[in-house]
Design brief:
It is built from 13 helices and five strands. The chain folds into three domains: 164 residues, P-loop containing nucleotide triphosphate hydrolases (Rossmann fold, 3-Layer(aba) Sandwich); 80 residues, Helicase, Ruva Protein, domain 3, CATH 1.10.8; 77 residues, no CATH class. The two termini are 35 Å apart. It is of the alpha/beta class. It has a five-stranded parallel sheet with strand order 2-3-4-1-5, sandwiched between helices. ORC is composed of six subunits. Its main location: nucleus. It is found in: Nucleus.
């Protein structure tokens, strides 16, 4: 696609979490970048030069913020003129459309990788439509690759969106026990730590994770915890992890859920905050929601309780008004984040 000056087809990479989608795509991009630097590998070095932008939609303040982030990265790559300051959400889409309308044959191809693409799927799908519409321009010199955990996202797109592009699918299947064992062995070998795990223990770890989700990240976490258990038991930094250590780690990470125990020990207001968070997540059918929406919902739940309970309400605010509810919600959010029960993503929202 880079040699051809772009493609009207989108590379759609999907699969379960922890199956190596992002790592594989980024490695392929790094290999292309290395080859582009060594023009001897190509008949024409200029045909292989490209600018790369990688956006993780889950880390954005909102779907529309994707355009500002793309502008920022392309400005840093020298494809757009600018001072490096963040471009506003209202200006960024038009600026990018203008860029792709004016591309010439001598311009580098732009490779745009959008991770967690499903987070950009708003109700009207306007963000996806505008992005994919660039591919219909006469000569955008653009390649778009999308990564998502959702297998059927293309089928759920509106016709006006799906008509903008062709599709090339790559599906990642969960790792099997042999693959997990091979990856774990390679990781240990690369750190000269192959002797730290009993071979049978490593195989059992791969089999247990493969029987569940096949998520390689869980296998790595399990090995890490098993090593910590062994070191705590023996008091030595040089040791060999055995089946007993793995069983303890497995009980902690795979079978037991420490979050459930922690939630049971929370106070009433913390429970109410989590209820507000869950209500907003269900309303938006998303894994991340704006903080201000959760705070507002928390305040409404407090108001409802006050009306129902009256003078016997045990969750009365220390202050009055929406500011008091917001301050209390912010405190609870920090507390729950410190307990690793929720994750607060600190992003800048530019108007």
């Amino acid at each position: 696609a880079i040699r051809n000056g772009g493609s009207s087809k989108v590379l759609y990479v999907s699969g379960m979490p922890g199956t190596g989608k992002t790592a594989s795509v980024l490695k392929a991009v790094r290999q292309l970048e290395d080859k582009a630097k060594d023009t001897k590998d190509y008949a024409s070095g200029s045909d292989c030069q490209f600018a790369f932008a990688h956006v993780n939609a889950m880390c954005l303040a909102g779907p529309a913020a994707v355009f500002s982030e793309i502008v920022r990265q392309l400005t840093a790559a020298g494809e757009l003129e600018g001072t490096g300051r963040q471009c506003s959400k209202s200006v960024a889409p038009a600026k990018l459309t203008q860029l792709f309308e004016r591309r010439g044959k001598s311009d580098r191809v732009i490779v745009l990788l959008v991770d967690e693409m499903d987070y950009l799927a708003t109700r009207d799908q306007a963000v996806l439509y505008r992005m994919f519409n660039w591919l219909t321009l006469p000569n955008p010199r653009l390649v778009i690759a999308a990564i998502s955990n959702t297998m059927d996202l293309p089928e759920r797109l509106l016709p006006r969106v799906s008509s903008r592009f062709g599709l090339v699918r790559v599906s990642f299947q969960p790792y099997n026990k042999e693959q997990i064992n091979e990856i774990l062995s390679q990781r240990l070998s690369s750190h000269d730590a192959s002797s730290s795990f009993d071979p049978l223990t490593l195989k059992l770890c791969g089999a247990r994770v493969a029987a569940g989700s096949g998520d390689i990240r869980k296998a790595l976490q399990l090995c890490k915890r098993a090593l910590e258990v062994r070191m705590a038991r023996t008091g030595q930094t040089t040791c060999v992890v055995d089946l007993e250590d793995l069983k303890v780690a497995e009980k902690e990470l795979l079978h037991a859920n420490p979050s459930v125990s922690a939630i049971h020990g929370l106070g009433g207001k913390a429970h109410l905050f989590l209820a507000a968070l869950m209500l907003e997540m269900r309303k938006r059918t998303a894994e991340a929601v704006p903080e201000k929406k959760v705070f507002k919902r928390y305040g409404k739940l407090l108001e409802t309780l006050a009306k129902v309970e009256g003078d016997s309400n045990p969750m009365e605010l220390s202050g009055s008004g929406p500011e008091a509810a917001n301050d209390e919600a912010a405190f609870l959010a920090k507390r729950l984040e410190a307990m690793s029960l929720i994750e607060v993503q600190h992003v800048r929202e530019h108007e």
